[in-house]
Amino acid sequence: MKIRSLGVAVTLCTALCVPTFSVQAADLLIENVTLIDGTGTQPLAGASVLVKGDRIELVSPMPLKHEPGVEVVDGTGKFLMPGLIDSHIHIGANTITEQKMKEQHIDGVRALHSFLYLGITSVLDSGNVPDYIFGLREEEQTGKLISPRLFATGTNVNVAGGRGGGPIRPQGSPNSPIRLTGDWAADGALFDRYLKTRKPDVQKLQIDRHGVFDAPAPYMTVDQMSKVVRMANENGVRTMIHAASEEDFNESLEANVDQFAHMIRYAASDALLKRLATKKIPISTTTVVFAFIERLAYDPEFLNAPVWKNSVDPDVIAFQKNVERPGFIKNGMAPNFKATRHIILENSKKVHDLGGLLVAGTDRGWGQTLHMELELLHGAGIPLLDLTRIATLNAAIYLGKEKDLGSIQRGKYADLLLLNADPTQDAKNFAAIAAVYKSGQKIDFAKLDLPVNKRATKR
Ligand SMILES: [Zn+2]
C-alpha cells in the first residue's frame, strides 16, 4: 500500500515541481553531494537526493527547500553512489553441510555483515545448500537479519559427475543438487518442482569440460541446457552458467543461457568476445578468485591488513592460511592461477572495450574481495567511471532487479553508499566509506557481528 501511494507521488511529480517540492520530517535528504548515479554518466557536483520511506523520491541538481525536522546529511566534500552489488558470492565458501547448517548460520550472518561493512548492499549467492541459503534469504527479506539484500541460486543443474564446483550431496535429499539423468520427463518434473518450491532468484547451470588441469569430465549437451533454460525462463527465472572455455561459452550461447557466472578463463577468439559484447550478455567477472588464491599462496600476509582483521573472523583467516593455502599449493591450483590469471583480466578488458556488459563479482565470501575485484579490473585498464556502473546497475541487470536497484534514480530503493573520497579518481576510494544505507536506513556498523566491534567492546 505504502509503495503504491509513493508510486503515485513519483509519477505526478515532474521536473517542474522540483523547486517547490516539500520535504517533510522523517524524510532523508543528502545535500550538496557529488552524485555518481550508477548509470556511468559523469559525476554531478552539488546534487541533492531525497529519500522517502525506502525509496528515492527525488534527485535534484540543485538544493531542495526543506522544513525543520527533516534528517539532513551534509554531503559537502563527499560522493554518493548506489550501494555496491557482488553478483557472485558463496556464503560459507561451499563448506556448509546439511548436518551443520544451524551452527553455520552464525558464519553466514558474519559474512553478510562483512559485505555491508564494505558498502555492498546486495549480493547473489551463486551456489549453496538450499535450506541454508533460502532460510537466510527469508530472514533478510522479513527484516529479521541485518544484511545486504540476499539473492540466491540455491542448487545448480549439471549432469552426474559434471565439473563446476559446489558441494555434492546424496541424491534424494531436499538439498541435493539437480543432476540430469538423460530422462527429461523425470528430470524436468524434479526441476520444475524445485523452481516452484524454492523460488531461486537466478538459476545456475554448470558446464566445464576441461577444468583447471584439462582432465575430462561429463558435461551437459546443448539440448539439455536449452530445456533447463526454457523451463527456468517459463518460471520467470533468469539463468546463469558456470562456463570456462570457448566451447563451453559457444554452446551456452546456443542454448540461450541468459548470463555467465565467470569470464572466459582461457584464451578466447575475437569472434566469441565480439559475440558476447554484441549480445550484451551479462558476465560476472570473478577475476579475484584467481588473484586471491595466488596471493594466498605467495603473499598471505595481505590478510593481516586492518580491513581483513576488522571484517573477517580470525578463525576464518587462520583457516585460509593454514588449511586452504597449503591445499592450493599442493593441488597445483596456485601456480596454475599465477601463470594464467592475466588471461581472464585481458578477456574482461576486451569484452568491455567491445561494448559488452561486465558485472562485478568475486566468487568469494567476504566484502573486501569486491574491492580487490574492482582494483584488478581497473588495473587491467577499465576506467573507474565504468566500474561505478559495473558494480551497481549492471549487477542489478544481472539480478533481474534493475527496476528497483542499481542506480540513484527516482523510484528505486534507497540503497546508497556515501564516500569520503572520489571513486572515479582511485579504485581504493570505493572503500572510503562514510555511511551505508539500505532501504533509506543508515546501517549502524556498531550492530554488525564483526571483529572490529568485538575488539572495541573488550577495551
Ligand atoms: Zn562460484
Keywords:
18% strand, Urease, subunit C, domain 1, five-stranded parallel beta sheet, eight-stranded mixed beta sheet, alpha/beta, TIM Barrel, 15 helices, globular, disordered N terminus
Bound heterogens, unique: zinc ion
Structural class: alpha/beta
Number of domains: 2
Shape: globular
* Name of the CATH class of the largest domain: Alpha Beta
Mean pLDDT rating:
90
CATH arch. level architecture of the largest domain? Alpha-Beta Barrel
| Total beta strands | 18
Distance, first to last CA = 47 Å
Q: Strand-residue fraction?
A: 15-25%
Largest sheet: 8 strands, mixed
User: What share of the residues lie within helices?
Assistant: 25-40%
By CATH, the topology of the largest domain is TIM Barrel
Ranges where pLDDT stays below 50 over 5 or more residues in a row are 1-20
What this model shows, in words?
This protein has 459 residues and is α/β, with parallel strands linked by helices. It folds into two domains: 120 residues, Urease, subunit C, domain 1; 316 residues, Metal-dependent hydrolases (TIM Barrel), CATH 3.20.20.140. The chain is built from 15 helices and 18 strands. The strands form four sheets. Strands 1, 2, 3, 4, 5, 16, 17 and 18 form an eight-stranded mixed beta sheet that branches. Helix 4 packs parallel to helix 5 and helix 7 packs across helix 11. The longest helix has 21 residues. The N terminus is likely disordered. The site of zinc ion has 6 residues, from loops.
In short:
With 459 residues, this protein is α/β, with parallel strands linked by helices. It has helices spanning 2-12, 101-117, 130-141, 184-198, 222-234, 246-254, 270-278, 288-298, 306-311, 314-330, 333-353, 368-379, 384-390, 393-399, 451-458, and strands spanning 28-35, 44-52, 55-60, 71-74, 79-82, 84-89, 120-125, 149-152, 156-159, 178-180, 202-206, 238-242, 259-260, 283-284, 358-359, 416-419, 433-438, 441-442.
